[in-house]
Design a protein that fits this description.
22 helices; Rossmann fold; globular; alpha/beta; 21 strands; six-stranded parallel β-sheet; 3 domains
Length: 605
């Protein structure tokens, strides 16, 4: 078996540099080159194009692997035909996504369907944040920036910002009017105040210039490009880090968790915020950033992030015991129907691996099928996102959970049986569709270990294990106005700290972006507990792929209260939300100073 990697030749700029760099790193691992020349393929005849394909893939044999760097910046017809020819000769395709041209510009969105079909033709997808195709995928967390330059001295303390980009493309340099100086590395003129245009520089000279000190800026020209940065890696980011200087990035981009988790620089909400933080930073704070960057940057300069995804993708393709997430089979085994871990195994998996959790129950299924539920009106976008999450392949970062009702139903009460029997009759076709996925799910009853079980004695051990999950951790609770999870009991007593974001008790999805931004502000390096109905499922997925640890654990408080009082059936709680008692009526909220002090943002109307 041979392994090839494509590389476009004849381009210029960052696109050419990135493909060449990835190819060079792959060659260090023994990959062979598959060159693709960039030319005007639109006018080439079908016969000529067929001959060209044969020339490109002349060296492959059945079973060989081809890492296809995408896009090639040819027309999609060219790329689709080349991949089809590779597969016709028995080649196996791994798609390495550098950019998604169909998402880069609004005018290119018409290409999205065909681009998705090209991605789905591969067996493994390498992406910068998370896959949108139903296949195995590996994550490219950040670009490498390989160089032989080594910097003997750390960056100097300078309150200045560097930006390697064209003012005409990114716009903000022409509007710069902050006290902190901005150095722009481009051949264009710039009309902003306190801006110094340094001109275009080759890569080595640029690195040496940046390495003198200051901050490297990654920013956007408009809101559409900001949205795209949630899924795309910026090459500028790696350039600055390779030079050994800390960075400034906008909140919400794909690399935010990497910057914050490794203390590599500033995450800012606005350029004004960024300039203010640089203006007020102390030398000690700056040098602390520099120290972390110097430790981290050797990974980038030596190509380790690229090597990691190349090796991981090959293993995904060839190992029988390794799927894209390492969950299915390993924990659930091979089954002809649903693979759902029990609640104990689910909790252990979450604790051991710090995996995020999205729990699906009957309410989420109702929404996906087009119906409103008591706390959430039907929303087409919400329903679509829920289905996308439940049907997606297994994922190392996110564990999707289903009700543990497909085996061992004798564990549950008669009332439980009656409810779920009716539910399954109504939605059997939907569950058949899910079962066809062949993936492994956790148990939704991770947070429901008491009231529906015949043998309630197991609840004590399960709650003890849940408390161990919270122990000595900084916790951020995201909950509805009436939830008050843990108020009046010791559920979170062992936590290192508790903070809360209070959200609408109904139709929380209408405030989704505001809630997510609040979580991003307060959730760094914390265990985020989501108690927000169907909205929590979407949040768990999005937060997981941004690098947060978010566990959808709604109704845990009601279950714990019932357990503490030894209830044999569901009893309404007077002073806070109760599971299955809909509409939150006649709740007698009580003043609680400790609870009030834990609230960091109030987003409820």
């Amino acid at each position: 078996m041979k392994i090839f990697i494509t590389c476009i030749n004849g381009l210029s700029g960052a696109a050419q540099y990135a493909q060449t760099m990835v190819s060079d790193i792959a060659h260090q691992l023994g990959f062979r080159n598959m060159g693709i020349f960039y030319y005007n393929s639109r006018e080439e005849s079908a016969e000529s194009l067929s001959s060209r394909y044969d020339g490109i893939i002349a060296g492959i044999s059945p079973g060989d692997i081809v890492f296809f760097q995408h896009p090639t910046w040819h027309q999609l017809r060219f790329e689709e035909g080349l991949i089809r020819r590779i597969k016709a000769y028995g080649g196996r395709v791994v798609m390495v996504v550098h950019d998604v041209e169909a998402l880069m510009f609004e005018s290119s969105r018409f290409m999205l369907k065909m681009v998705t079909e090209i991605y789905n033709s591969a067996e493994v997808l390498v992406v910068s944040s998370y896959a949108r195709a139903d296949m195995k995928f590996a994550i490219q967390e950040i670009w490498d920036y390989t160089t032989d330059i080594r910097f003997s001295q750390p960056a100097k303390f300078r309150k200045e910002i560097h930006f390697a980009g064209k003012p005409s493309k990114f716009l903000f340099p022409d509007q710069w009017n902050f006290d902190v100086p901005l150095k722009v590395y481009a051949s264009e003129q710039c009309t902003g105040e306190n801006v110094q245009v340094k001109g275009w520089m080759d890569s080595d000279r640029l690195l040496l210039e940046l390495a003198e000190g200051g901050f490297g800026l990654v920013w956007y020209g408009n809101d559409y490009w900001h949205q795209y940065m949630r899924y795309n890696n910026s090459f500028k980011l790696s350039t600055y880090l390779a030079a050994g200087i800390p960075v400034i990035v906008p909140r919400g981009i794909s690399n935010q968790y990497l910057i914050e988790g490794n203390h590599l620089g500033i995450v800012a909400d606005t350029l004004e915020d960024a300039a203010e933080q640089v203006k007020n930073i102390s030398e000690a704070e700056y040098q602390e950033y520099v120290r972390h960057v110097r430790e981290f940057s050797s990974l980038i300069r030596d190509g380790y992030f690229t090597k990691k995804f190349l090796i991981e993708a090959v293993q995904m393709l060839l190992r029988q015991d390794m799927d894209d997430y390492g969950i299915s089979g390993m924990l659930c085994g091979e089954k002809e129907h649903f693979s759902v871990m029990d609640m104990q195994k689910t909790l252990k998996y979450v604790k051991d691996r710090h995996v995020s959790v999205a729990r699906f129950g009957d309410g989420e299924v109702d929404l996906m099928m087009g119906y409103s539920i008591p706390y959430q009106d039907y929303n087409e976008e919400l329903a679509g996102r829920l289905k996308q999450i439940i049907m997606a392949p297994d994922n190392r970062k996110l564990l999707v959970c289903l009700p543990d009702i497909f085996e061992g139903r004798e564990r549950y009460t008669d009332a439980f049986h009656s409810f779920w029997d009716e539910h399954m009759k109504r939605y059997q076709d939907f569950y058949d569709e899910i079962a066809a996925n062949g993936k492994c799910y956790g148990s939704t009853f991770l947070s429901r270990p008491y009231i529906d079980l015949v043998d309630k004695s197991i609840a004590e051990k399960h709650f003890q294990n849940i408390k161990e999950l919270f122990a000595e951790k900084d916790i951020l609770i995201v909950e509805g106005f009436y939830s008050r999870s843990g108020v009046g009991n010791d559920l979170f007593q062992g936590a290192k700290s508790v903070e809360r974001i209070i959200c609408p008790s109904q139709n929380a999805y209408s405030r989704y972006e505001a809630i997510m931004n609040a979580v991003r502000r307060h959730g760094v390096n914390k265990l985020i507990l989501l108690m927000l109905g169907p909205t929590a499922k979407i949040m768990a997925a999005d937060l997981a792929f941004e690098g947060y640890w978010a566990v959808d654990i709604g109704h845990i408080d009601s279950e714990y209260e019932w357990y503490r009082m030894g209830a044999a059936y569901k009893i309404k709680l007077k002073n806070k939300h109760t599971a299955e008692f809909n509409f939150d009526r006649d709740i007698e909220l009580q003043d609680d100073d400790a609870y009030a002090e834990e609230i960091v943002e109030m987003l409820s109307d």
